[in-house]
Write a structure and sequence with these properties.
One of its GO terms (molecular function) is lipid kinase activity. This is Ceramide kinase-like. The protein has 454 residues and is of the alpha+beta class. It has three domains: 85 residues, PH-domain like (Roll), CATH 2.30.29; 141 residues, Rossmann fold (3-Layer(aba) Sandwich), CATH 3.40.50.10330; 168 residues, Tumour Suppressor Smad4 (Sandwich), CATH 2.60.200.40. The protein contains ten helices and 20 strands. Helix 2 packs parallel to helix 6. The longest helix has 18 residues. It binds 2-acetamido-2-deoxy-beta-D-glucopyranose (4 copies). The site of one 2-acetamido-2-deoxy-beta-D-glucopyranose has 4 residues, from loops.
Length: 454
């Protein structure tokens, strides 16, 4: 079959030492007839031969590499071109048509430019049709995914950061449940998304992209999509009061939720500035939440004061956490990591946050508990707590840092998106519910992860 085909040729531009090399067709993603044209000339021109475009791997990076095969015979080139095209169209995971969502306001508003510069030319080269939507507001991609026709597409692509990725992933999964007629109560068994999702990282946080690419680069992401590299990943569902709220990859409660809620209230600040401001301010007013955590299995229960709780279905790699925010989980082994940071002093807590950038023993603190879980129920108890907690009085500035919003909800950071939850939240993991374009970074050779973090 096509996959086993070896393509042997002599490199034309080595005059002296004609050297034999081979390229496997499974690494080739496009073929073009090469002609010499004068500037501005659109058709015709002197035939030079054919050009193969190969996807080359260098560390975590994927790059395109052109191989020119010189031949002046129209007949030969035509035969080669046609046969190669036929072989290339036989690779079954490679998409021919994509639905693309671009979030034009993510990070420094560079998403559309990244798409135009680094991605669109590669899609065109690979003869992939892209139906592009530049989203106008939050929720726009979700509303399109709920009722657009997906049949003609082989994949969905999101150009943006974690918030945009989460919205598109949620949209794809919600759509799959609607198509399957699933009632999304809190105990339903979800069906898999119909199409794989490709992520072009262009946000201020890109932990999902980095978990499947290991690197924040448009070209690498585009080539994973073009080559049809499939990576199934586990997904969480978040339900409250018996109803599904959304699908996602990670959740943070306590410090992580509050920091985001505070940053959201300062939307007028530039993104990096407001994140830093929120982080420092939340640290200064470090709050202890009382909560019950129930873990699945035979539902073990914990009750106590916690500073920060993370529940993550994927490792969430980023530069400040080279092994991930949740190094103790895998992309698709059917479990989530529960990391609960108990009460401690501010300085110990800061020490813990800094330890994320180490590669060993990130959670080696007596106040941190880690568990591998299938489901978690989290029930916060924080009303009126500050007044009772005499020792913490000076840290409890409820005027500047409301613990709960005026609506009586609790702030959760779900994939960098603020979700206000009124009561107990049930988080369940669903093994391999979504397929992403990418690879398992655990199996990749060690290389520094270059992605921005939460
Ligand atoms: C705590 O909060 C920080 C900052 O929001 C976040 O990066 C981290 O993953 C959270 N989780 C734990 C368990 O500390
Ligand atoms: C998934 O992988 C993590 C890390 O290796 C491990 O601790 C956990 O037990 C695994 N989960 C399952 C269900 O095998
Ligand atoms: C929480 O930790 C702080 C700092 O170590 C301590 O002062 C406080 O008493 C603790 N609160 C409880 C209820 O254990
Ligand atoms: C952790 O961060 C510090 C300061 O930014 C840096 O010097 C150190 O090399 C980092 N360690 C790792 C393992 O990345």
């Amino acid at each position: 079959m096509a996959f086993k085909c070896l393509f042997v040729f002599a490199l034309a531009d080595h005059d002296v030492k004609r050297q034999e090399e081979y390229v496997e067709l499974k690494d080739v993603f496009a073929v073009k007839v090469k002609r010499r044209r004068s500037a501005g000339q659109q058709t015709g021109g002197t035939l030079l031969g054919i050009t193969l475009f190969q996807c080359k791997k260098k560390g975590l990076k994927l790059k395109e590499h052109a191989i020119h095969l010189n031949n002046l015979s129209e007949d030969h080139c035509e035969i080669w071109f046609k046969s190669l095209k036929e072989i290339l169209s036989g690779f079954k995971n490679r998409p021919k048509s994509l639905k693309v969502f671009v979030n034009p306001i993510s990070h420094k508003k560079e998403a559309y430019q990244i798409y135009l510069d680094e991605v669109a030319p590669l899609f065109k080269l690979a003869d992939i049709e892209a139906d592009v939507t530049i989203t106008k507001r939050k929720g726009h991609a979700l509303s399109i995914l709920k009722d657009c026709s997906l049949e003609e597409h082989d994949g969905v692509v999101c150009v943006g950061g974690d918030g945009s990725v989460a919205e598109v992933a949620h949209g794809l999964l919600l759509r799959a449940q609607m198509d399957a007629g699933r009632d999304t109560d809190s105990i339903f068994t979800p069906v898999q998304a119909a199409l794989p999702l490709g992520i072009i990282p262009a946000g201020s946080t890109n932990v999902v992209a980095c978990s499947v690419h290991g690197i924040r680069r448009g070209m690498t992401a585009a080539l994973h999509i073009i080559m049809g590299h499939h990576q199934p990943v586990d997904v969480c569902s978040f339900s409250s009061m018996g109803r599904l709220l959304r699908f996602g990859f990670s959740a943070m409660f306590g410090f992580g939720g509050r920091t985001l809620a505070l940053a959201e209230r300062h939307r007028w600040m530039p993104p990096s500035q407001r994140r830093e401001f929120a982080l420092i301010k939340t640290l200064a007013n470090l709050n202890r939440d009382g909560e019950d955590i129930c873990e699945h299995g035979s539902w073990q229960t914990r009750q106590g004061l916690y500073l920060n709780i993370s529940i993550m279905a994927i490792p969430c790699l980023c530069s400040t956490a080279p092994r991930g925010l949740a190094p103790n989980t895998r992309l698709n082994n059917g479990s989530m990591a529960l990391i609960a940071v108990g009460n401690t002093s501010r300085s110990e807590f800061i020490k813990h946050l800094k330890r994320y950038n180490s590669t060993t023993n990130q959670f080696g603190f007596s106040f941190i508990e880690t568990q591998t879980v299938k489901a978690v129920k989290l029930r916060p108890h924080s009303q009126g707590r500050c007044a009772d907690d005499v020792s913490e009085n000076e840290e409890c500035n409820t005027k500047t840092m409301p613990i709960i919003s005026s609506e009586g909800t609790y702030p959760w950071n779900i994939d960098a998106d603020l979700l206000e939850v009124p009561s107990e939240l049930l988080i369940r993991v669903h093994p391999q519910l979504l397929t992403l374009f990418g690879a398992d970074m655990e199996e990749a050779e060690e290389a520094p992860v270059k992605c921005s973090c939460i």
